[in-house]
Amino acid sequence: MEKRKIAITGGIGSGKSYVCKLLAKRGIEVYDCDANAKRLMVESEDIREKLQQLIGEQAYIGRQLNKAVIAAFMMESEKHTLAVNAIVHPAVYNDYLSRDTEWMESAILFDCGLYRYFDIIICVSAPEEVRIQRVMQRDHITWEKTLEWIHKQWPQDDVIAGSDYEIINDGVADLDQQIDHILHQLKDK
Questions:
Q1: b/e per residue, 36-70, with b = 16+ CB within 10 A?
Q2: 50-54-60 Cα angle (round to 5)
Q3: Which of 117, 130, 105 is closest to 23 using CA atoms?
Q4: CA-based nearest residue to 131, from 17, 4, 11, 20
Q5: Which of 43, 106, 157, 159 has its CB 3.0 to 4.6 Å from that of 33, i.e. a possible disulfide?
Q6: pTM recorded for the entire structure
């Protein structure tokens, strides 16, 4: 029997990683797209060559990814973001498929079209102001820069609408209760 594919998504600052830690406490392994994308961008010769052709040799410093150059390139235009994503995302998805895990965490599941390949999608949501405060504290960036990153992603309401379940992570709602409810429902699917 083919394994189910379950995605956890939500915008920057929504608390996806925290929800994934709560799932890990329940024995559920979740494939982390961000961490594996960074790993693959360093390890994969194919990705390295394509990024250097697209951005230039400065995309890497020796064998290490030059994150500042790549981030600046992507922020220049949506076309640049799509070009980088077209190189990285297929490799990440293939890496996920090669693992023995059914769960994946991806902030840009809808942005990059990966949502089409999942049986169940769970959105972690939070009010925009909460998300802004979390990102500013975590990344030590300005309110304006945080808002710019939020607005580069799919609108949260659209992600919620495209998902099968929502976990509200506003700092008030009980996360454990919501997760347990969803896991109980997934047993019947």
A1: bbeebbeebeebbebbeeebeeebbeeeebbeebb
A2: 70
A3: 105
A4: 11
A5: 106
A6: 0.88
Amino acid present at 27: G
- Tell how strand 103-105 and strand 6-9 pair up: parallel
What kind and span of H or E run contains 161? helix 156-161
Residue pLDDT, tens place only, 47-80: 999 999 999 999 999 989 998 999 899 988 889 9
Q: By CB neighbour count within 10 A (0-12 exposed, 13-18 middle, 19+ buried), where does 71 fall?
A: exposed
> Which residues 6+ apart lie within 8 Å of 45 measured at CB?
none
Can you read off the two tokens belonging to residue 77? 């235009």
Instruction: Answer whether 185's CB lies under 8 Å from 154's CB.
Output: no
For residue 13, what are the CA distances in angstroms to 23, 100, 168, 169? 18, 28, 12, 10
The whole-angstrom separation of Cα 167 and Cα 149 is 21
Distance of alpha carbon 125 from alpha carbon 35, whole angstroms: 21
The first and second tokens of residue 94, run together, are 């293939």
Which of 130, 132, 129, 151 shows the shortest CA–CA distance to 142?
132
